Amino acid sequence: MYIKKQRLLTPGPTPLLPSALHAMMGSDIHHRTEDFRNLYKRVLANLKDILGTSNDVLVLVASGTGALEAAAQNFFSPGDEVLVCSAGKFGERWVEIARAWGLNATVLSAPYGDAVQPETVEQALAGNRNIKGVFAQASETSTGAQHDVKAMGHAVKKTDAIFVVDAITGIGTMPLEIEAWGLDVVIGGSQKAFMIPPGLAFLSISQKAWGSGEDSKSPRFYFDLKRERKNAATGESAWTPNTALLLAFDEALKYIQSLGPHKLVANAQLLAKATREAVTELGLELFSSAPGSSVTSVRAPRGMDSGVIVKEFRSRFNAIISNGQGSMKGQIFRLAHLGYFDFHDLFAIVAELEIILNANGHAVRFGSGVAAVQNAYADAALAKEAALTAG
């Protein structure tokens, strides 16, 4: 109990892939050389493969929010009518970005913990043929909810509007069939399921989106995606790239390809399922009515501020978990599953949670939550063994 390793257990930044961290030490390469061009072309090709798309893929030196803003800049003009799905802190960010760029945003809202329903999007599109775009989160990390972007995408696909999806925590935690579902602009970030530090954002962009952007009158300079596409074709970025992060990204993409992108998703889904079963066994209530697999949001016990649980994880175990955001701060805590998390992490997290709850007046039977995780693991392992035997 005296040696306490720091453990990052948040939904972003997430734990780092060791080989990616080591790769960053080779960053003393110049970005206008053949060495860099080979690296950049490989990163773009492998990212496209992992996303499962033939659409253009671009990488920006920015946090995910930079790519969100780039989408608003490059594909729309001031005054354009758009729909924004908002069911949490990051949905509210879409609203702020749309309005900052002068878009006429109709907000389709759902309470924190819920999700905007596809039927609501379809009805809004049917009622206004001037809608140029629909903005949504695939995974609303502030609440743990997940949107049905497949059904939303099919609704948008029937119109001239483009569908812009913040998939920053959706990629690697849920299926996303970009072209089949009509996801025109899909945005991701480096510090989530890709297991490297913050600082890179990326977008996949459909031909429909590029066509929409032809008429865009919004000013742009650094986030000029046409310029980025032109430069990317020759293996260069428009501006000075973050070579250290690109080297790390290269390693992370190789790791995900060796694992299989579908297994990255399955890992997050299994951890999320086990977590839900564990916290329910401990007498806690799940927050979201449409839970996803990037993070599980849990209501604090009645009369307890969730900040107490967050602080206790840090002070007792040097582990960093996330409080609620926005109006949910103090009411929920969030346990992450995306990227470089495994069952070893989850066994420890749940055991620590049992100790913290018990020490703060919420009596639990030690081992009951951990047993739920063990059962989830054992069931999955037996199912895997049975499938291998049958094969």
What does this structure look like?
- The chain has 14 helices and 15 strands.
- The chain has 2 domains: 7-12 and 261-390, Aspartate Aminotransferase, domain 1 (Alpha-Beta Complex), CATH 3.90.1150; 18-259, Aspartate Aminotransferase, domain 2 (3-Layer(aba) Sandwich).
- The longest helix is centred in the C-terminal third of the chain and has 23 residues, at 368-390.
- The model has no long low-confidence stretch (mean pLDDT 96).
- A 7-stranded mixed β-sheet has the order 2-10-9-8-5-3-4, with helices on both faces.
- The chain is an alpha/beta fold and 391 residues long.
List keywords for this structure.
391 residues, 4-stranded antiparallel sheet, Aspartate Aminotransferase, domain 1, alpha/beta, 2 domains
